[in-house]
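FIELD: query
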Amino acid sequence: MFKVFYEDLELGKQETFGSYRVTKEEVIEFASKYDPQPFHMDEEMAKQSVFGGLCASGWHTCAMTMRVLVDHMKEQGFAGMGSPGVDGIKWKQPVFPGDTLSVRGELIEKRESQSRSNLGLVKSKYSVFNQKEELVMQLITNVMVLKRGD
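FIELD: result
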């Protein structure tokens, strides 16, 4: 099942992956449940907003990015064991229906766990882009990763 462990991760390694198509229906559905602001739910009101049109909630952008990340981890056989949190999220530009999101990740820090000998902790910087290669979001994540256990 797992193929990529803490020991396999290279500091500074970068990779781009994923493709997530944003739909109007999903933007409205997410917003109606979790972030019911007019510019996320009503096309006419959104046209009058600073965004100029219906756009995804930043939290929806995080959720879509999470889907891309988890799909990538599964494909790679990454031995991730969850996250103790993120260090920061920056929403740089709105995400609109019709956009296709991709992710560029860079491993920026790794260290062994002080409390669990079978885990390492990694910090990664993820940049999310639309189909025009415009940066729409950045986040710094912390992930617990199994050690190989040879």
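FIELD: remark
Helices lie at 24-34, 38-41, 43-47, 58-76.
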